[in-house]
Amino acid sequence: MPSYWLQVSVRVDPAALDAVANFLIERGSPGVGIKKDEIQGYFVHSQDDASIRKDVRRFVQGINGLYPTQDRSLRWRLLKDRNWHSAWRRFFVPQKIGKAFLVTPPWTRPPTFRRRQVITIEPGMAFGTGTHATTRGCLEFIEKVAPSLQGRGFSALDVGTGSGILAIALAKSGAKRVLAVDVDPLALEVARGNLRCNGVEKKVHLSGAKLSRIKGLFPLVVANLTAETIIDQAIGLGKRAAGGGWLILSGILHPKTQQVVKQFAGGFEVIRQKREKEWVTLLLRKK
Predict the structure, then answer these.
(1) At residue 159, what are phi and psi to the nearest 5 degrees?
(2) DSSP class of residue 125?
(3) How far apart are alpha carbons 119 and 98 in whole angstroms?
(4) What is the 8-class DSSP label of residue 124?
(5) Which of 11-20, 186-195, 212-221, 244-253 shows the lowest per-residue confidence on average (mean pLDDT)?
(6) Which 3 state secondary structure label does DSSP give 11?
(7) What pLDDT was estimated at residue 108?
(8) Rounded to an integer, what distance in angstroms lies between the CA atom of residue 192 and that of residue 280?
(9) How does strand 155-159 pair with strand 177-181?
(10) DSSP per-residue codes, 219-251
(11) What mean pLDDT, rounded, does the chain reach?
């Protein structure tokens, strides 16, 4: 049980509350509290504090650029444990995503469904618990695309794997080999545990390699990142998708959607867009 928690209080434009709350949860906060236009998130106090502060500050700055307001602030406090370790579990319950998946924390026994793949994820120190709109969008598009590839015994690439949730979904959707990459060593550690928990560690290869060092072509490439990172890595992402292959992109705030689409206009066709509140997920196919 942690002795201390790192508390962040974020005051933003009311229109941005949901986006900030989702980001804090994806970054590892077990839950958030919302009071009017202020959000409070909690992180286990650790050597990762500086990285958490940097990520949150960068995200809030981006949000404030989209939703300017005169009254905004970002405050941090270090708090002693108040038995939150068990209390925050109420924020995570089994949830259905699309028609193919059920995402559940490890301490809950989910109901049995014949046609749903159960993905068990330990919430905590890496992105991807299934609660975020971008994760759900990727899972729904994996559900859509995977059946058309299963006959080939397809391979897949998951860029920025985080908790490993999308790599697990790919493995459980028929992929014989999944390459899951992330430059964050902590994310790879969390993902490795989740792969074992879901029994797919033999199908998924974890790597800390940068996208520029990855070779080969993949019928399906998934990248749940940010609009800025996708734009920066657009050439590399496009090169890794096989001809006629699929590219799923998410982590995109709606105002930046067209900027992302333009990066792939020459070689890809946009098949579908899914918007959930501020977030957009794209399904593209290589020409």
Answers:
(1) -95, 120
(2) S
(3) 13
(4) S
(5) 11-20
(6) strand
(7) 82
(8) 28
(9) parallel
(10) EEEEEES-HHHHHHTHHHHHHHEEEEEEEEEEE
(11) 87
Query: If you classify domain 92-286 with CATH, what class do you get?
Result: alpha beta
Q: Do domains 4-89 and 92-286 have the same CATH topology?
A: no
Count of other CB atoms within 10 angstroms of residue 135:
28
Cα-based distances in Å from 131 to 31, 64, 135: 11, 23, 7
Domain ranges for the chain: 4-89, 92-286
- Unique residue bearing structure tokens 């942690």: 2
Judged on CB neighbours under 10 Å (0-12, 13-18, 19+), 182 is: buried
Given a contact cutoff of 8 angstroms between Cβ atoms, the answer to whether 267 and 237 are in contact is no
Cα–Cα dist 41/10, whole Å: 8
Better-predicted residue by pLDDT, 198 or 5:
198
> Which pLDDT band holds residue 167 (cuts at 50, 70, 90)?
very high
Cα torsion through 212, 215, 218, 223, rounded to 10: -20
CA distance 62 to 33: 21
**Tokens 């809950």, residue?**
108
Query: Of 211, 282, 283, which Cα lies nearest the Cα of 245?
Result: 283
Q: Structurally, what CATH architecture does the domain formed by 4-89 represent?
A: 2-Layer Sandwich (3.30)
Q: What are the residue ranges of helices labelled H in the chain?
A: 17-27, 49-66, 84-87, 133-145, 165-172, 185-198, 227-232, 234-240, 257-263
Q: How far is CA 9 from CA 6, 43, 46, 83, in A?
A: 10, 12, 18, 20
Asked whether the beta carbons of 8 and 56 are under 8 A apart, the reply is yes
Full-model pTM = 0.76
Token pair in block for residue 175: 């992929």
CA distance 240 to 181: 13
